[in-house]
Amino acid sequence: MAILEVSNIIKQYKQYDEIITAVNRVSLKVEDGEFVAIIGPSGSGKSTLLHICAGLDKPNSGSVRIRGNEITAMNPDELARFRGIYVGFIFQKHNLIPQFTALENILIPTLMCNKPDFSYEEHLRKLVEALDIGDRLHHLPSELSGGQQQRVAIARALINRPQVLFADEPTGNLDRENAEEVLRLLLHTKELIGQTLIMVTHDMSIAERADKIYKMHNGELFLFRDEHGYRLNSYEDEAKKSKL
Amino acid sequence: MELAEFLNKRIKHAVKSVFFNRAQYFCFFVAMFVVEIFCGLVVIASYNSARLEYKYVTERYPHHLELRNMNEDQYYYMENDIYTVFANQHIYDKLKVESRADAVTGEKYYTYYIKFVGDPDESYHTFINRYMRELNNLADENGGKYDMVLTPLFDVNDRIAINNAFGVLAFLLVAALSVALIMTLYNIRINHYRFEYGIYMAFGADFRRLMSVCVWEMLVVSVVVYLPSLICSWLISFAVYKLAGQSYEYYPWTPIIVLAFALVVALLSVATPVWRLSRRTPRANILAEDNSNLVASPRISFEMLTKTYPRGYELITGWRFRKYLLKLFVTVSLFAAAFTSLIYATGLVMGVNDCLKNQFYLNFYDDITYDGGTEGGFMHEELMEFPGVTGIVKAANVTAMQMSSHIVFSNKNVKFGVPTVYFSDTERATNRASYNACDSEVIESYLSQYEIEGDPYSALKNERTVIVSPSQWNFTALNLKPGDKIKVAKKIYGPALQLQLTGHKLLMTQLDMAKANVYKFEYTEYTVGAVVKNLPSSYNIEIFFSPEDYAELTGTEAVYKSIGIYADPNLSYEEIDALRDELDRWGDYYLARVSSSTAILDRNIAIAKRVPTFIIAIAVLLLAMTPLVWFFAQILFMFKREGEFTVLLALGAIMDEIKKQCVYDGILAAAVGGAVNFIVTVSANYLTYFLANHLLFPFMANRLRVLFVVPWAAVAAGCAISILCAFFSCVVPFYLFKRRVQLISVSEPEDI
Predict the structure, then answer these.
(1) Residue B518: its pLDDT value, please?
(2) How far is Cα B477 from Cα B474, in angstroms, rounded to an integer?
(3) I need a labelling partner for A34 at 20 to 30 A (CA). Which of A14, A58, B419, B571 fits?
């Protein structure tokens, strides 16, 4: 069953007199429990697509459905509440709030969704254990390393047990070792919660671990590798290159 | 979630946010402190105003009713009050009885001072039903000198209610100013720190949750400054009353009202900014932070290489942020404008307090009329000799509508928007006019209080010359100047119209009937000798004629059966009572009945309330907020530009050039900010004048009219503060940057 259905998304920006199409007629279907990676060069529109899929941004046209709910038709308040329940998001730059400790940052989604302590205490314990940040919980973000910050960001994204987790280059600012560790943790927690993971990455070695890989180029999305491991060559530029 | 857990989480979250970002929140601490002082001052001032109103009234008038100048029959009737003596239906206490002998006949007259028992309204009605008819029957012929006067004590509750209504109005005004102040600051803050709220939104915060986060933060700020602001408001109000020698009481509910006020202001102030924030997508809010370091676009940064650096570059940057800067200039100017408007309003309030009102009235009965004209008038001289009498005012008038008349004037004299009737191709007419008799005494004692263009005495010296106050409802209706001509119509014949017509419809009907020869008017041309600029006006244009012209036009001599007497406002109540006795004796000789008003009491109460001082205190506090807004906005703005400065340094600019750039920015901000401030301030002053003069004063019991003046000292103070703040708010952050220069790094824009 498709947990995420994206159809015909277009996102354009106006810059001076120029219209830039960041996402151009993108359609995508992600099955429940899948791990999907989106790769592509800088400026190809993958972050924008991820933000739109997660309901953090609005497309100019097209629709996004999560669990059958059309989020593009929701008003900002309905969408915010929906995000709180169904969606988790890991930002490339962690985006931890500097005045709060790691624990307080992790608990922000529970506060925003008004969840009582008992509803997440056990889950929090498991997350902290899995992410190995138990001894850093009462430190401010400025007192944590990049890897630790990203783990806190992951815990924050997972605390409400979202059904879909969107990760925008979660390993982009980390070294190889830390990147591997974060990916391992993401896959572990994915299994723990049984969720769908959609990740934007530059790193092919990380993308290879996904069930499906999509590639983005000039705002357009192509299936790069399917769940059976077949590399699909529908990507126009690739085709041109192969002809040459 | 349990309440305790809920509160604990919210408060902890808010306290951490506020104290971690205390530099950002510093201006909110100051602003909330001032806002709570505003509220405290208004609450305490309102309470003390009501208290002083009651105190002054009860001290001066311990009784509800005066039965003045009763003859002996009336006196004995009241002394042997059958209801009290035989039926024990006791509705009043007799506080005292005064008697005096008539200066001419020697007859004794008595004055009864009555205080009602129980509800004054009910007792008064019972009193009227029981005693009125008999007292009137026993009165001398035509009522004699007998008079029944209700004192201010009777409607003291209404006075206090009016006082409280003004208090509520002031409270609402202060609330609006407070919300404007906090909202302005919150808007600035939220625009610079959207990132944090974008994160909250990404994790499920809808408008309600965001509001909750922001309101709790503001509540923390409110609570921290609560006690100091209460103490300050107490100290200021205590000083205001005590320095003026007034008694003072602290209103015990003030702390609770101030707390509630702070909560409401916090709620209202953050609602709009948060609403706008919540309508943006979380991504837009998060990226606003990430990309904001590069304040000059790549294109401008590139083009700057061909421009004069740093002046040209800074001008380009200023132009690029014109919307932000203009918004800031206008916003800050509004506070300076509110300051000057309040100072202007203080002048208006003082004008209302100082406005001359008649303390006594003399009503002549039988055939006697006031003979006070300077040509042989003896009453004027006698009255003016009484100690404390400062002026005499008299009036004899008739409206144009009453005598089926109208005035005609040239088209070019009509101001836009004034309803008039077409009379001919070049002339228009109106019957919204009042004809007044005028002699030198009217000019000296009445018209001389106002600004007059031309020679008012020309109306007495020359034939067919008039003084005109060409305004309606305090608006100038006709552009008349000395030397202009107007025609006044006098009805020669024509039926009295039974139609329910008034104003220009009546006049149009009359003019139509004149064309059909059913009506006939005779027109006399008058020269405008003088124009009164600021005479308070209602429906009618006032025209003052010489006694001869008045008699010729109206067909009746100008008789003055009633005159008003101005008394020195500094008289004590004992002196006022003594003057009243003198006037009573004078009235015995000239068959005039004396009545008194509460003019001096009202003035004393108004002065005791110290309203102008409180307005000035609030105005000064408001002006003190101007630098706060300037520096808060500009420091945050310049803080965002630090990345840009670092890039410029990396490209080879030296620190002095960056400094120059900030100085140019400061000069630009000071020049534009000062100009915007001046325009906004003068406009706001005019608006205050317009609202007070045209929408408030014409409807007051004692009409008042003021001319528009700009309080230049206040405007200069506001502009000076704006110019200085505009300049230094650009330069000071540079030095902060210089200190931090080692720590600054440039953020990269996020990948789309």
Answers:
(1) 85
(2) 9
(3) A58
**Rounded distance, CA B275 to CA B224, Å?**
26
Greatest CA separation for chain B: 108
Cα B333 from Cα B676, distance rounded (Å): 7
Backbone angles phi, psi at B628, to 5 degrees: -60, -45
Contact B206 A81 (CB under 8 A): yes
From B209, which residue of chain A is nearest by alpha-carbon distance?
A112
C-alpha span between B487 and B205 (Å, rounded): 74
Residues of A in contact with B13 (CB under 8 A): 100, 104, 111
CA gap B489, B497 in Å, rounded? 17
| Ranges of chain A whose pLDDT falls below 70 | 16, 229-244
ipTM of the complex in this document: 0.89
State both tokens at A101: 């400790």
List of chain A residues whose C-beta atoms are within 8 Å of the C-beta of residue B2: 116
Q: Is A214 exposed, middle or buried (0-12, 13-18, 19+ CB in 10 A)?
A: buried
Q: Residue B683's CB: how many other CB atoms inside 10 A?
A: 13
Q: What is the mean pLDDT of residues B490-517?
A: 80
The half-sphere exposure of B449 on its side-chain side, counting CA atoms within 13 A, is 19
Q: Which residue type sits at A130?
A: A
- Could you write out the DSSP letters of every residue in A221-232? EEEEE-TTSPBP
B310 confidence band (pLDDT: 50, 70, 90):
low
Neighbours of B323 (CB within 10 A): 8
What pLDDT does B311 receive? 63
* Residue found by looking up tokens 């003045």 in the block: B68
Calpha distance B228→B647 (Å, rounded):
44
Question: Rounded to whole angstroms, how far apart are CA atoms B201 and B182?
Answer: 23
* Number of helical (H) and strand (E) elements in chain A, helices listed first: 9, 10
Of the candidates A45, A78, A95, the beta carbon closest to that of B752 is on A45
Least confidently predicted of B304-308, B346-350, B605-609: B304-308
Identify whether the C-beta of residue A104 lies closer than 8 Å to the C-beta of residue A147. no
Tokens 């498709």: give the residue. A2
| Two tokens, residue B7 | 């509160």
Best of A21, A39, A51, A78 to disrupt the B interface by mutation (most B CBs within 10 Å)? A51
pLDDT on residue B143:
67
Query: How far apart (Å, rounded) are the C-alpha atoms in residues B286 and B196?
Result: 7
Q: How many CA atoms lie within 13 A of B568 on its CB side?
A: 15
**Rounded-to-integer distance, Cα A50 and Cα A55, Å:** 9
Helices assigned H by DSSP within B368-466? 379-385, 440-445, 458-461
Name the amino acid, one letter, at B109: Y
- Structure tokens of B277? 């924030």
Kindly report the pTM of this predicted structure: 0.80
pLDDT band at B293 (very low <50, low <70, confident <90, very high): very low
User: What pLDDT score was predicted for residue B525?
Assistant: 94
Whether the CB-CB separation of B331 and B695 falls below 8 Å is answered with no
Q: DSSP character for B750?
A: P
- Looking at residue B497, its amino acid is L
Longest dimension (CA), chain A: 62
Structure tokens at A62: 């097209």
Q: Using alpha carbons, select from B59, B63, B68 the residue that is nearest to residue B99.
A: B68
User: Are the C-beta atoms of residues B650 and B202 closer than 8 Å to each other?
Assistant: no
